[in-house]
Specification:
The chain is of the alpha/beta class. It is 44% helix and 16% strand.
């Protein structure tokens, strides 16, 4: 039996290796074809341009030296066609062909670069990166040594520093989302477990979600948020957003009222639900959660009020603390009814932030190691930057102009003047 098991494992490993080789070869062929097509299209586009001797100004000229690209399925050999472009631009400089598929200095696919900050925030130390990446990508992942990882982190820190100082002049965010995110590494000194990362996101006038700011703060305090908001305002974010969504426990709200007093408040229903359920025994939580869901998923404010009153009458006698947790934020829990119904799914929670950091967020446990402030902020910046490319536009983005103009919405529907 032991021998059969061993043989099965060997066969399974062999099968995976064969499959990986097939996938790698297929990917290599597809990449080669794509690059060849890109070059052929480029040369064909300028085939009509000729010099005084009727020679083409843009022609193929053999191949560049082969190079290896690190991908999620291992190393792939690539030979890129060389283009001889003899055209001159308006500054008198030779025009050079630059592949959009395979930039000149690319050595790794973007998916590999995205993997590195995730591994770091999950507790993998710099010295263990090579072993971890080889386990994930195969034994050929030798190009990412500890030295290369350190060099990458240094480059990312420079990117984050420049991004944190960028001008926000002309920016207008209609909606904001704010949250404090805790990670499984400690910042700065070993005894400091109250440090968190403050994340601010916004929705632009055309409905795109963008990362606005990332900073470290002390327990999500009002002073930490005030410093962040003052910074973005100083860099040009002068127009008050129409609505901000966040956790009720944040010091964000006190800071927001000082810096952007015209911005309305919406408490996150995911955070509120969790806070209420924490004050109730487990056997009651499923029913209570369903009743809370009925409140914020109601089609109108009046229906939400009825569900609100039902929750209070059902649980007031036995669980007054849970009911008080709900009642104290009643007004700011239902603000979203004054905005377009198409936007409700985006405004009721801080999910745009939560989903980005869901797999690495951990409020209680910490790894034994201690990360520096710049390194942690840099990793969070890279994670958010990677995720930002996949964020969806707001539903009903065409309604944002009416929100900006102050058009009144009742239960999500634009009010028609009599």
């Amino acid at each position: 039996m032991e021998k059969d098991t061993t043989n099965t494992q060997v066969m399974s490993t062999t099968s995976r290796d064969v499959l990986t080789n097939i996938l790698r070869q297929g990917a290599q062929q597809m990449l080669s074809v794509a690059i060849e097509n890109e070059v052929a299209e480029y040369v064909g586009r300028y085939a009509h341009l000729r010099d005084a001797d009727e020679h083409r100004l843009v022609v193929r000229n053999g191949h560049l030296p082969a190079r290896k690209i690190q991908t999620g399925i291992g190393l792939i050999d690539v030979r890129q066609p060389r283009v001889n472009d003899r055209r001159i631009d308006e500054k008198g400089q030779r025009i050079r062909f630059a592949s959009q598929i395979l930039p000149p200095y690319l050595r790794r696919t973007k998916s590999i670069d995205e993997l590195i900050p995730w591994l770091y925030l999950r507790g993998i130390s710099t010295g263990d990166f090579t072993e971890a990446l080889q386990a994930l990508l195969g034994p050929q992942a030798h190009g990412l040594s500890a030295t290369n990882i350190v060099r990458l982190k240094d480059c990312w820190q420079q990117e984050w520093a420049a991004w944190s100082r960028r001008s926000l002049l002309g920016k207008h965010y209609v909606y904001l989302w704010a949250d404090g995110v805790y990670f499984n590494i400690r910042l700065e000194e070993p005894g400091n477990n109250q440090q968190c990362i403050l994340v601010l996101m916004g929705a632009t006038t055309d409905g795109n979600k963008e990362l606005i700011a990332i900073a470290d703060g002390y327990r999500e305090s009002a002073q930490s948020w005030r410093e962040l908001l003052l910074d973005v305002k100083h860099r040009g974010l002068s127009i008050d957003p129409k609505l901000a969504t966040g956790d009720g426990a944040l010091g964000f709200w006190a800071a927001l009222r000082q810096i952007y007093p015209a911005t309305r408040e919406q408490r996150c229903w995911v955070h509120k639900t969790a806070n209420i359920l924490n004050k109730m025994p487990k056997h009651v939580q499923p029913r209570a959660k369903s009743m809370l869901h009925d409140i914020w998923m109601a089609e109108s404010r009046s229906q939400a009020q009825k569900a609100f009153d039902l929750f209070i009458s059902t649980f007031q006698a036995k669980y007054p603390q849970a009911v008080q947790c709900l009642v104290k934020d009643k007004d700011v829990l239902l603000t979203f009814y004054d905005f377009p119904a198409e936007h409700w799914v985006h405004l009721r929670t801080t999910n745009p932030i939560e989903s980005t950091f869901a797999t690495v967020r951990l409020r209680t446990d910490r790894t034994k190691g201690c990360g520096s402030r710049p390194t942690c902020l840099t990793m969070v910046f890279k994670l958010a930057q990677c995720a930002e490319r996949r964020w969806h536009r707001l539903n009903g983005k065409e309604l944002l102009s009416e929100v900006i103009e102050g058009v009144k919405f009742v239960n999500g529907i634009k009010e028609i003047a009599a």
